[in-house]
Amino acid sequence: MNKTTGMFRWVAVLFLLLAGTAHGELAIIAHPDNPEPALTLKQVKRIYLARAKTFPQGGLVQRADQEPGSPVRQEFMNKVLKLRERQLNAYWSKMTFTGRGTRPEVVGKDGDIKQWVLHHPKGLGYIDAGQVDDQVKVLLIIP
User: How is the chain split into domains, by residue range?
Assistant: First the structure.
């Protein structure tokens, strides 16, 4: 094997490894009795940043968050909030200090979020779309 062939194989393996780390879709979920038909990405962002405290059709919303450092949370922060962890922490410090909002409740991972949503009729959470089942209502899929 010459250097060029070896280098090509190394680049191909590296590409496959990086492609395998890409995350899937996210699902924004709610209690199955929630009357909201759907949410937009903008609405989810406003709700999760405490800029909106109710669902668009009315009714208070309770937000569930995944554990810091979880891959699904990182994906949510990138795709929905468009913030990094440090930026989000600074945002919540400001919101809390000024009395304009509080962080979502940190619940756990996908299974914990689903159970939490089932026990909170006003609940809203996010999970890996591959974990969705008929127990929860999906309000938005984020590719």
Answer: 24-142
78 φ/ψ angles, rounded to the nearest 5 degrees:
-70, -50
Q: Under DSSP, is residue 48 helix (H, G, I), strand (E, B) or coil? A: helix
Can you tell me the distance from the alpha carbon of 58 to that of 48, in angstroms, rounded to the nearest whole number? 16
CA 9/CA 11 separation, integer angstroms: 5
pTM > 0.70: yes
* Token output for 12: 């191909």
Residues 6+ apart with CB under 8 A from 135: 32, 114, 118
Q: Which residues of 57-73 are buried (b: 16+ CB within 10 A; e: fewer)?
A: eeeebbbbbbeeebebb
List the end-to-end C-alpha distance of the chain, in Å, as a whole number. 41
Q: Which token pair is 14?
A: 């590296």
User: pLDDT, tens digit, for every residue of 73-126?
Assistant: 999 999 999 999 999 999 999 999 999 999 999 999 999 999 999 999 999 999
Fold of 24-142: D-Maltodextrin-Binding Protein; domain 2 (3.40.190)
